[in-house]
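G., the chain you wanted modeled:
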Amino acid sequence: MAIRKLEELNVKERRVFVRVDFNCPVKNGKVTDDTRIKASLPTIKHLMEQGARIILASHLGRPKGQPVKDYSLEPVGARLAELLGVEVFLTDDCIGDGARKVVSDLRAGQVALLENLRFHKEEEENDEGFAKKLAAHADVYINDAFGTAHRAHASTVGMVRFVEEKAPGFLMRKEIEYLTPLLEAPERPYVAILGGAKVSDKIGVIENLLDHVNVMLIGGGMAYTFLKAKGFGIGKSLLEKERLEFAEKILKGAEARQVKLLLPEDHVIAESLDATETQIVGNANIPDDKMGLDIGPQTRKMFVAEIALAKTLFWNGPMGVFEKAPFAEGTMDLARAVADCAGRTVIGGGDSVAAVNKAGVADKISHISTGGGASLELLEGTKLPGIAILEN
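Predicted structure as tokens:
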């Protein structure tokens, strides 16, 4: 794909509209986790150094197309100002006279933050009139919000055709550079680890990755639908009856493609999620009144051995209910194994990110995606609208 690099653009004294992902948790008027703000800093600082007039735009929460005080970006702007060490000018709205005046008054190197895009229902509707109003702020368009790249909204797709020059920010480019090779030219052996609660959430990813990987490790609640499809009793474990046929199809498909698809062979079981007493049992021995809530030690050993051999690895979804101590060890063991893997390792957002952070190994992962939903859609083989629009 022919996508220009940010460094190739002349941005000096030009109005540069940057779509960022500042959808951060806010409590009592303070940002409680600034990870997403920090992730955008390399792009913003580069533009400041190049003398651009910077207009940042983001959504926050789900205000349903109405101005809602609790979803104002004011606390985000305050935290960004602290991190940058400069004043950040927050507009009263993302369009209109107030926003237009703030943008026109910006000098080289200064930063404005538009108020929440989703205070207008036209943002998610990708309304052309609204998109043109956003585009009127810009000479150059930069998208650095990978977490929204799978959404065809006014700020991610609609406005781009009305702006002369466009490119991804550094964060977006890193996502593209790490994720697209997972489907195009992965170094082998290529191992995918898929976990989490439901098969339904990962149908497209499982189907598509089956054509690309050498090894697929399936754990978490979704593994029990596969085990049931193989004829094992699973007690009260999570089961999606309507996905049994799909699970059978995948098991046969893996065999036909000579993909090594491994399922748990032993389990940490208990009566409920809140139980403190646990047992370890093999596949044929989950009693009717118990449920599997983590992979057992034998499975951990088997999965870790495959991870150690990987030259390319993608992981999305925990191996058990890792938020609770009795059922965390499987996910923690895998997080440490992925960190020790010498190959290229990519974590696909969501709970897997929380897991590597909890294990204290996030800095040892090659790439941690900032967009769970976007990374999964990309690995389904879907062309993300927010990336496609950046192609020249």
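The chain has a mean pLDDT of 95.

Shout if anything looks off.
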